[in-house]
Protein backbone atom coordinates (compact mmCIF):
# COMPACT_ATOMS: atom_id res chain seq x y z
CA UNK A 1 0.00 0.00 0.00
CA UNK A 2 1.47 3.32 -1.01
CA UNK A 3 1.43 6.62 0.81
CA UNK A 4 -1.10 8.05 -1.64
CA UNK A 5 -3.55 5.22 -0.96
CA UNK A 6 -3.11 5.66 2.81
CA UNK A 7 -3.68 9.40 2.51
CA UNK A 8 -6.89 8.83 0.56
CA UNK A 9 -8.14 6.37 3.22
CA UNK A 10 -7.36 8.80 6.03
CA UNK A 11 -9.08 11.63 4.17
CA UNK A 12 -12.18 9.48 3.66
CA UNK A 13 -12.22 8.64 7.37
CA UNK A 14 -11.94 12.32 8.31
CA UNK A 15 -14.76 13.36 6.00
CA UNK A 16 -17.20 10.61 6.97
CA UNK A 17 -16.84 10.97 10.75
CA UNK A 18 -20.24 12.10 12.05
CA UNK A 19 -20.48 14.65 14.82
CA UNK A 20 -22.33 13.51 17.94
CA UNK A 21 -25.89 14.73 18.21
CA UNK A 22 -26.95 17.38 20.69
CA UNK A 23 -29.15 14.84 22.50
CA UNK A 24 -26.17 12.52 23.03
CA UNK A 25 -24.01 15.37 24.33
CA UNK A 26 -26.83 16.43 26.69
CA UNK A 27 -27.16 12.87 28.06
CA UNK A 28 -23.39 12.63 28.57
CA UNK A 29 -23.36 15.97 30.41
CA UNK A 30 -26.32 14.94 32.61
CA UNK A 31 -24.58 11.68 33.49
CA UNK A 32 -21.33 13.51 34.27
CA UNK A 33 -23.11 16.00 36.54
CA UNK A 34 -24.87 13.16 38.37
CA UNK A 35 -21.55 11.38 38.93
CA UNK A 36 -19.89 14.60 40.09
CA UNK A 37 -22.68 15.15 42.61
CA UNK A 38 -22.38 11.58 43.88
CA UNK A 39 -18.63 11.95 44.36
CA UNK A 40 -18.84 15.25 46.18
CA UNK A 41 -16.62 15.30 49.23
CA UNK A 42 -18.66 14.99 52.43
CA UNK A 43 -18.02 17.25 55.38
CA UNK A 44 -14.81 16.20 57.10
CA UNK A 45 -15.17 14.23 60.30
CA UNK A 46 -14.38 16.17 63.45
CA UNK A 47 -10.86 15.75 64.76
CA UNK A 48 -10.59 13.19 67.55
CA UNK A 49 -10.40 14.68 70.99
CA UNK A 50 -7.15 14.13 72.82
CA UNK A 51 -7.51 12.65 76.22
CA UNK A 52 -6.06 14.84 78.92
CA UNK A 53 -3.04 13.42 80.66
CA UNK A 54 -1.56 11.52 77.69
CA UNK A 55 1.83 10.39 78.88
CA UNK A 56 5.08 11.29 77.20
CA UNK A 57 6.13 7.65 77.33
CA UNK A 58 3.07 6.61 75.32
CA UNK A 59 3.74 9.26 72.65
CA UNK A 60 7.40 8.22 72.50
CA UNK A 61 6.40 4.58 72.05
CA UNK A 62 4.03 5.58 69.24
CA UNK A 63 6.82 7.54 67.50
CA UNK A 64 9.28 4.64 67.80
CA UNK A 65 6.65 2.21 66.54
CA UNK A 66 5.90 4.43 63.54
CA UNK A 67 9.62 4.86 62.83
CA UNK A 68 10.19 1.09 62.78
CA UNK A 69 7.39 0.51 60.31
CA UNK A 70 4.35 -0.14 62.46
CA UNK A 71 2.94 -3.33 63.89
CA UNK A 72 3.98 -5.66 61.02
CA UNK A 73 7.66 -4.90 61.61
CA UNK A 74 7.21 -5.21 65.36
CA UNK A 75 5.74 -8.68 64.78
CA UNK A 76 8.88 -9.59 62.82
CA UNK A 77 11.14 -8.25 65.57
CA UNK A 78 9.20 -10.16 68.23
CA UNK A 79 9.40 -13.36 66.19
CA UNK A 80 13.16 -12.96 65.71
CA UNK A 81 13.60 -12.36 69.44
CA UNK A 82 11.58 -15.42 70.42
CA UNK A 83 13.48 -17.62 67.95
CA UNK A 84 16.79 -16.31 69.30
CA UNK A 85 15.81 -17.11 72.88
CA UNK A 86 14.56 -20.53 71.80
CA UNK A 87 17.80 -21.39 69.98
CA UNK A 88 19.84 -20.15 72.93
CA UNK A 89 17.85 -22.13 75.47
CA UNK A 90 17.13 -25.34 73.55
CA UNK A 91 20.66 -25.77 72.13
CA UNK A 92 19.72 -27.72 69.02
CA UNK A 93 21.97 -30.71 68.34
CA UNK A 94 22.35 -29.90 64.65
CA UNK A 95 23.74 -26.48 65.52
CA UNK A 96 26.86 -28.00 67.11
CA UNK A 97 27.87 -29.62 63.82
CA UNK A 98 27.44 -26.33 61.99
CA UNK A 99 29.45 -24.29 64.48
CA UNK A 100 32.21 -26.91 64.60
CA UNK A 101 32.46 -26.97 60.81
CA UNK A 102 32.51 -23.18 60.58
CA UNK A 103 34.73 -22.34 63.52
CA UNK A 104 36.75 -25.53 63.85
CA UNK A 105 38.74 -26.36 66.93
CA UNK A 106 42.33 -25.69 65.89
CA UNK A 107 42.49 -21.93 66.24
CA UNK A 108 43.81 -20.06 69.21
CA UNK A 109 44.41 -16.42 70.07
CA UNK A 110 47.88 -16.53 68.50
CA UNK A 111 46.35 -17.46 65.15
CA UNK A 112 44.37 -14.24 65.10
CA UNK A 113 47.45 -12.00 65.37
CA UNK A 114 48.79 -10.92 62.00
CA UNK A 115 52.27 -12.11 61.11
CA UNK A 116 54.55 -12.54 58.12
CA UNK A 117 55.66 -16.07 59.02
CA UNK A 118 53.60 -17.56 56.22
CA UNK A 119 55.32 -15.41 53.63
CA UNK A 120 58.85 -15.89 54.98
CA UNK A 121 58.93 -19.69 54.85
CA UNK A 122 61.49 -21.29 52.56
CA UNK A 123 60.88 -24.14 50.20
UniProtKB/TrEMBL annotation:
It comes from the Bacteria. The keyword Transmembrane applies. The chain crosses the membrane at residues 60-89. The keyword Transmembrane helix applies. Keywords: Membrane, Transmembrane, Transmembrane helix. This is Dihydroorotate dehydrogenase. It comes from Rhodovulum adriaticum.
